User: Which sequence fits this backbone?
């Protein structure tokens, strides 16, 4: 690789040592009755005494800001690279709250006289990406292309993290099928903060199946085909994003009390009486969402048509669906039976965490928990239009992986000393490789979450997988299943991230064949970003 890089393979970096020191203190507090103490504390916003007012997503009347819809240049502009480009991480100013500015970390691209911040990268399957990453932050960083099948040199592993003012060159071919992927930082110990302050963006890969689906329903990017990036945040009285974490918040994952949708607080979108496609990316650090479309108190049926790995085999009807952090869902909602003047809300109904989960989430000292209901996006029906498109019964060819003869690899999610989340009893070490895989192998990974307090969204780099079965799922999860194996609509097709619930065992199959020369090193980790930074992550090597 033509790059200026640092060897970040030192296991004892300052951020890591500091976290373990603080986590050890947290374990002492919690083991001596700290659960009750923190649970009974009054939850407050980032700045003591702050009144949320018009920022509160629990109040439907607050949704008066037009949704930032991706188009053209600028923030969330759609960028189709046709030549090598430079993507720079930098700190700038942005007004989330009217009349007030906040420091905002962005990826910036300038090409052909246009400038984009956190651009939506639109890429063709089979296309070549040549990007030079320039780090203008005050800390080391690297870009991970989440969900893309690339070799280890292009994956954005933290051992490739570069210091301020350095660059790193990427050069890869897009091997993936059409889907909504995303890109974000991956420096060890600093990912959570960097994503929280703004570094994240969509990648939309296109192929013939995707184009045929868009034509069939007359879907137009930015008009009726709309990416939605969901991120919960904390703000202070000056309208600035703040990353304020207690020991418990770091242990559980940060939660905010204000929701950003495409960087818009309390947004609305004017719609017509037709199909709309919403490509939802959960870019929050730790929050899960239980999504539903509501007219008043009535749920509006919709279809799950895609997920992490693109279009599903067929539309799956639903009235609710859960999306974990880092997952993507492709939702199609039919508004043809509505009338001008009707109002629909995309809402999270609150995630059932169970008794222990509620107790643990009560330990948060900021924000509100995933069990809380709140609104996400207001849809104002404006016009009745003529629309005669029909939803296809078949969307995509999903070639099933054959698990026959595949070896099973057991993986256990647990915790150590009540302060550290672990994978097979291990925490991350930059130069350790707890899992070794043959490059010609097909394996079944059997992930058991023995933790009774919370689910973990598990992400694997390098390879998509297919979910085979959910075993011992909580009752609220089983209620959403669409087959006898306990699979959810979001489990169908190809995946790269999956939520494993407390007490649940989840089995998926992976084909480790790849076209890259030599050994490949990738990561397997929880995508609650504070857990990832805290060490709930391991290397695996394909040899």
Assistant:
């Amino acid at each position: 690789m033509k790059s200026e890089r640092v060897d970040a393979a030192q296991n004892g970096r300052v951020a890591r040592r500091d976290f373990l020191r603080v986590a050890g203190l947290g374990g002492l507090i919690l083991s001596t009755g700290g659960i009750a103490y923190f649970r009974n504390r009054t939850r407050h916003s980032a700045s003591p005494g702050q009144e949320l007012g018009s920022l509160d997503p629990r109040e439907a009347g607050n949704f008066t800001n037009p949704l930032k819809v991706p188009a053209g240049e600028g923030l969330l502009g759609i960028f189709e690279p046709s030549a090598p480009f430079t993507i720079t991480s930098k700190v700038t100013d942005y007004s989330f709250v009217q009349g007030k500015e906040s420091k905002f970390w962005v990826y910036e691209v300038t090409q052909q006289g246009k400038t984009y911040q956190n651009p939506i990268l639109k890429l063709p399957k089979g296309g070549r990406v040549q990007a030079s990453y320039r780090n203008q932050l005050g800390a080391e960083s690297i870009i991970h292309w989440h969900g893309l099948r690339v070799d280890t040199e292009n994956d954005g592993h933290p051992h490739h993290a570069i210091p301020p003012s350095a660059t790193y060159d990427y050069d890869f071919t897009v091997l993936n099928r059409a889907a909504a992927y995303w890109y974000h930082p991956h420096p060890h110990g600093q990912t959570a903060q960097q994503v929280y302050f703004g570094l994240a963006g969509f990648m939309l890969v296109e192929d013939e199946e995707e184009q045929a689906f868009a034509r069939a329903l007359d879907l137009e990017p930015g008009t009726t085909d709309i990416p939605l990036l969901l991120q919960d945040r904390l703000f202070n009285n000056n309208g600035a994003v703040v990353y304020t974490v207690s020991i418990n918040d770091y242990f559980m994952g940060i939660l905010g009390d204000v929701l950003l949708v495409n960087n818009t607080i309390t947004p609305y979108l004017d719609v017509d009486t037709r199909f709309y496609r919403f490509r939802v990316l959960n870019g929050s650090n730790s929050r899960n969402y239980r999504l539903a479309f509501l007219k008043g108190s009535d749920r509006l049926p919709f279809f799950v048509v895609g997920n992490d790995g693109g279009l599903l085999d067929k539309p799956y009807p639903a009235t609710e669906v859960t999306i974990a952090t880092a997952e993507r869902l492709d939702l199609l909602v039919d508004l043809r039976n509505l009338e001008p003047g009707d109002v629909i809300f995309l809402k999270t109904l609150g995630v059932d965490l169970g008794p222990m989960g509620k107790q643990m989430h009560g330990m948060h000292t900021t924000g509100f928990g995933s069990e809380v209901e709140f609104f996400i996006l207001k849809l104002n029906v404006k016009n009745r239009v003529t629309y005669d498109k029909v939803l296809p019964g078949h969307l995509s060819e999903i070639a099933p992986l054959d698990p026959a003869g595949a070896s099973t690899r057991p993986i256990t999610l647990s915790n150590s000393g009540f302060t550290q989340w672990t994978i097979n009893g291990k925490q991350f070490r930059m130069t350790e490789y707890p899992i070794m895989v043959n490059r010609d192998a097909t394996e079944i990974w059997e992930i058991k979450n023995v933790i009774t307090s919370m689910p973990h969204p598990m992400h694997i780099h390098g390879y998509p997988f297919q979910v085979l079965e959910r075993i011992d799922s909580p009752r609220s999860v089983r209620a959403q299943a669409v087959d006898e194996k306990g699979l959810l609509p979001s489990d169908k097709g190809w995946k790269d991230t999956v939520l494993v619930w407390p007490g649940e065992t989840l089995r998926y199959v992976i084909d480790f064949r790849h076209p890259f020369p030599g050994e490949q090193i990738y990561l397997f980790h929880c995508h609650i970003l504070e857990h990832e930074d805290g060490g709930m992550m391991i290397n695996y090597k394909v040899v």
Q: What stands out?
A: The domain at 53-217 is CATH 2.60.40.420 (Immunoglobulin-like). The chain has three domains: 53-217, 225-383, 407-542. The CA atoms of residues 465 and 510 lie 5 Å apart. The two ends are 20 Å apart (CA to CA).
